[in-house]
Amino acid sequence: MDVNHIFSRREFILVSGAMVVAVSALEAWGAKEAPLIIMDQAKGLVIADPTKCVGCRRCELACSEFNDGKASPTIARIKVTRNLNFGPTGLYTGQRGQGAWGNGLVIQDVCKQCPHPVPCANACPNDAIVVSPPTNARVVDPNKCIGCKMCQRACPWEMMSFDSDTNKATKCFLCDGKPKCVEACPAEALSYVAWRDLTDKAPPRVAPTSVVSPDKAQTCNNCHKK
Amino acid sequence: MANHGGWAGKVLRIDLSTRRISTEDTIEKYKDYLGGTGIGYKVMWDEVPTGTKPFDPANKIVFGVGPLAGTGAPCNGRTAVTTLWPTCWPKPLVASGHMGGHFAAELKYAGFDAIIIEGKADRPVWLRVVDGKAEIKDARHLWGQGIRRTTVDINQQMGPESSVAAIGQSGENLVPMSVVINSYSHSAGGIGGVMGSKNLKAIGVRGTGSVRIAENKEEWEKVVKLHLSLLGSVNQHVVPNSPQPWAEYYSPTRWLGSKGRKWGSAEPNIETGACDPHNLNRIAYRTNNAAFFLGEKAWQYTVRGNGCSSCPIRCHTILKVPSVSSKYGIRAVGQNTCAGLVFGREFFKTFPDGPRGQTAIEACMVGMSLTDDLGIWENYGQMQRDFQQLYYSGAMKNKVGEDEFKGFSWDQYEKGDPTFLFELLPRIANKQGELATALGLGTGYLLERWGISEQDWQQNQKIAYWKMGHPRHHANEDAGQCGVIINTQYNRDSQCHSHVNFTRNGLPIKVQKQLAAEIWGSPDAVDAVAAYSPMNIYKAKMAKWSLLRKELHDSLSLCNWMGPWIASPLKERNYRGENSIESLLYSLATGDKKSRDELDEVAERIFLLHRALTIRDMGTKEMRTEHDTIPDWVFIDPTGKASFTAGTNRMDREDIKLAMDMYYEEMGWDKKSGSPTVAAYQRLRLGEVADGLTNRGLVP
Amino acid sequence: MEQREEIRLTIAKIIREKSETGQLMQFEELLTELAGQGLLNPEGADQRSHLEGILRQVVSENEDIKELSSKNQIPHYYSSRSLSEIYAGILVRKEENSLIAEIVRENSAIYPRPVPLNIFREPPFDLTQEEILDYLEKMGKQGEYQDIAQTTTSIGTVFLYSNRHLDATYASILAEWLDVGQANNP
Q1: What are phi and psi of C152, to 5 degrees?
Q2: In chain B, which residues have their Cβ closer than 8 Å to the Cβ of A58?
Q3: B186-203 pLDDT, tens per residue?
Q4: I need a labelling partner for A54 at 20 to 30 A (CA). Which of B204, B232, B527, C9 fits?
Q5: Residue A219: what pLDDT?
Q6: In the prediction, which pLDDT does B349 show?
């Protein structure tokens, strides 16, 4: 089944268990089609143990080199460098924060493969962020991505990367179930596990500033009654 | 250029006198020299005239990295910094310092393979480098600050990901024994004062770009994984320190990971465990240099391993020692490796609770806290050995005026009280008083200033002094004649680990000999330590190979402290490593296919250029007698044991003459003078260098 | 016949799993375990010879499964996939008086080098300070261990060596080098 298939409203179905089928909706009272962003849950997730992180950045390098053929922490879909020295918030606390300059702890930022809403996908004006089997990771379809960076502004955890060589956004796609970062970690600090919802457990890094288009916002009301 | 991967493609040139900023094409100008020290020596040869002094504006500093820096090739975190060396005695000559950390990778992501610093700013400045652009910034508010505050300040301006290489008060005050430091604890010795002389406080680098792998990414992944599979612990020790279930051997190596040994200050604790070499996800747990150098007690204070970008071996250890906050008012968390870890401890002869007790650890913490902020260099422990020798021989008291001498708490010092370091170290950085000023000069100039003969130092095995102001660095005590040859070749301590990382790798001598036969042509290339056999040609081959691989690593940006990778922990490979790993990585990353021999030839060119620079600036071709000298203690055994008997490192004078003969011959140099012949230069396409030296009468 | 094959597979699995935890499998343990699982058909005294037969086959069929006998002839089994011969050799000799001496001799012969005494306090030896001292005392009294000698480094670490392979000066130079010299020459 094409999990990104756009269904009509009448075809909206829920399958067994907790699994929600990706659907899009033909607006109930309009002719215009706007996707309802409910995606199949991801099946896997990379989780990280900061006490084990040794700050070598091999995860970022494996992510970008083995997938993109270039070493580039900037496009890596796991993010360590930004927390390496001072931790997520530590730069202005001198040496009292985290990271190599603080208490030594390095926080690895990983994509949570959000259940719903999926902020990056919601924000994309071109519906370029789609579910990709077999892992059902939320991935950027480079053919659809127009490089507007709206997704970057939408992710509360700043997990969207932008490749300035290709002019496309990119994000964690779980390497089709064999994440390179997990394989590369020399300290067993990363694990690939069955998906679980971490969106309410990890504090956001930033307040998202993207705007969801009115069409899409309208479809939200189909379920979230005002 | 467009087709090359690996290199960023540009070299940044900063003239601080004119504030002119320009770039050069790396491939066009420097490809034959790879990067790192290769670019460094090339710039020094082409641009810095003979007779220039280290602190002259005409001296240059080259921060060079290579095509592998910033990639996922293991152990590529080092930046080679080349300049005229201020502690090289009696006449400053070219040398390089090497710092790890994240600077090298960040420089590549910012689009540069090297930064050449020239001239002198008219007031304190720092250099801001972001994504292909450079800017000279006012550093007056940073002048007088330590390295830590300077770094945090610049990070606040540039963002937390930036890598900042800064000098402390020591460098500002033109103390020759000064470092530049990036990433908290990664230092390059000797450079601090030269930066200070140029009024350059720091370089901040931020890059969001990438390093492209030229060839097929699947092939690259395979070779990177091959390399990872061959890694041992720090220094490529391939045998664990205690018996492990998977291991056929055990040796007192630096591979410390084991069941029951824990990172005791990680919350919760982390057990390092058996670390089977086939499990590439546990490489980082093999090494704990704090536990190796500070003793078993350090385990409880270990927060985690740390180190350079891309390196799975974490040779820096982050320690948390709560007692030092209340006792000495310093941070409880500190980190460094090797000589940097023990900087503070090594001044003392004794401690109240023994050499591996709590006080010794506290001395280490105090030392790291002070020196890595003030930016003082220890010259591979020579500063501390000099200090002890001068104090306990009474020479210090005689040379330093009585008033000044009384100003130190010598009773505390003799008791092993780390608070003494607060008296001594800031004075070195600030050149306060005769003692501190002299120590800051480095051994050669200190001895000269105090009227002590260099020969006194060269007689004394314990001081471990070699020549030209610098100590031995893995000489006969580690590799017999091969180590001796290597220690004659540089203008500071040799910093070569190609040989010692093999001889100390922990494998039984029989296995080492099997590997040696494959690599250098005969099992006789290596001996069991302290049981040396007379010289043979294979030892000369090993010495040449070691030197070339050192320069190769320094130019590619592979760490010669970790490599080479000619042995492995893998029984199924009969403990073989891969002698061609450098050329495999280089060829795939750059797309410039070179065999092992072809790449070694480039390394030889780089090494030869270093030799030519040394000859040119010394103004003599009589290298054998005037440069490649060997201290007397090498030929002395304290108990009178004869050379070539088990239980002594003593070398034999005639045998070492033969060793040098064989080495020069192996290099294709003139045996009598120890200088390369015109043919030797020409063979490596250094004809112009040969011409330059011929005009000066400096070829044999 | 089919059942025998199942037993053989089970035995190999049990041995391998035990090896993964860094331990040897003793014959008696195996017997109890298999009997507990009801896998050993004949009852009583026959069980023993029955198992011996199966084990011989297991060892010959599986390249990684090795048999090792302690001095009192009790067979132990391990898989070389996770235990090296050396390590297994240490484990099987753990209860023996000669262990320290044999380890010291091996080290003096092959590397060559003296062994720091404190290595015996760590896994897999796991001896207490008292046990080590006991051994040393016994060794001092028995003629067969007269080759085992000790040397102390400048920072007080005790090393043992065998003078069959190293003379006293060589041993003390090596001990000092391993304990102090290497750390002072990083």
Answers
A1: -115, 135
A2: 72, 310, 312
A3: 999 999 999 999 999 999
A4: B204
A5: 80
A6: 97
Q: Tell me the DSSP string of A96-155.
A: SSSSTTTTS--PPB-----SSS-HHHHH-TT--EEEETTTTEEEE-TTT-----HHHHH-
- Inter-chain contact B210–A74, Cβ cutoff 8 Å? yes
Whether A65 and B224 lie within 8 Å, measured CB to CB: yes
Chains that touch B (3 or more CB pairs under 8 A): A, C
Range of the domain at A89: 42-211
CATH topology of domain B473-695: 1.10.599
CATH number assigned to the domain comprising residue A152: 3.30.70.20
Q: Do the strands B20-25 and B186-189 form a parallel or antiparallel pair, or are they unpaired?
A: unpaired
Chain C residues in contact with B258 by the CB 8 A cut-off are 122-123
pLDDT value at position A8? 36
Q: Does A191 touch chain B (CB under 8 A)?
A: no
- Both tokens of B57, joined, read 């504006």
Q: Is the pLDDT of residue A217 over 90?
A: no
A29 belongs to a structural domain: no
Selected residues 515-554 of chain B with any CB under 8 Å from a CB in chain C: 528-531
User: What is the least distance, in Å, from the CA of C64 to any CA of chain B?
Assistant: 13
Residue A3 has pLDDT above 80, yes or no: no
Lowest mean pLDDT among A7-16, B383-392, B587-596, C154-163: A7-16
Q: Does B247 touch chain C (CB under 8 A)?
A: yes
* B272 contacts chain C (CB < 8 A): no
Q: Do chains C and B touch (3 or more CB pairs under 8 A)?
A: yes
Task: Single out the residue of B65, B160, B149, B158 nearest to residue A81, CA to CA.
Answer: B160
How far apart are the CA of B359 and the nearest CA of chain C, in angstroms? 15
Is B218-465 a CATH 1.10.569.10 domain?
yes
Cβ within 8 Å of C, B 572-631? none
Quote the pLDDT of residue A94: 78
Query: Which of the pair, B605 or A95, is modelled with greater confidence?
Result: B605
Contact check, Cβ <8 Å, B211/A101 = no
Per-residue pLDDT at A211: 80
* Residues of chain C contacting residue B293, judged by C-beta atoms under 8 Å apart: 183, 186
Q: From the list A57, A101, A187, which residue is nearest B309 (CB)? A: A57
Q: Which of B161, B282, B333 sits opposite A104 (nearest CB)?
A: B333
CA–CA distance, B567 with B570 (Å, rounded to integer): 9
* C108 phi/psi in degrees, rounded to 5: -65, -30
* Partner-chain contact A100 B318, CB within 8 Å: yes
Tokens for A142, please give them.
């480079």
Q: Domain end: C91, C119, C142, which one?
A: C91
* Angle value at C-alpha B291, between B101 and C157, nearest 5 degrees: 145
In 10 A of CB A52, how many CB atoms?
A: 21
Residue B213, chain A, CB below 8 Å: the answer is yes
B428/B378 Cα distance (integer angstroms): 11
- Class of B10-206 per CATH? alpha beta
Those residues of chain C that have pLDDT short of 50 are: 1
Query: Last residue of a domain, which of C91, C117, C137?
Result: C91
Tokens found for residue B349: 């002869």
- Mean pLDDT, all residues of chain B: 97
Task: Kindly state whether B103 is in contact with chain A, defined as any CB-CB distance less than 8 angstroms.
Answer: no
B571 Cβ neighbours under 8 A, 6+ residues apart: B248, C84
* Residue C140: CB atoms within 10 Å: 11
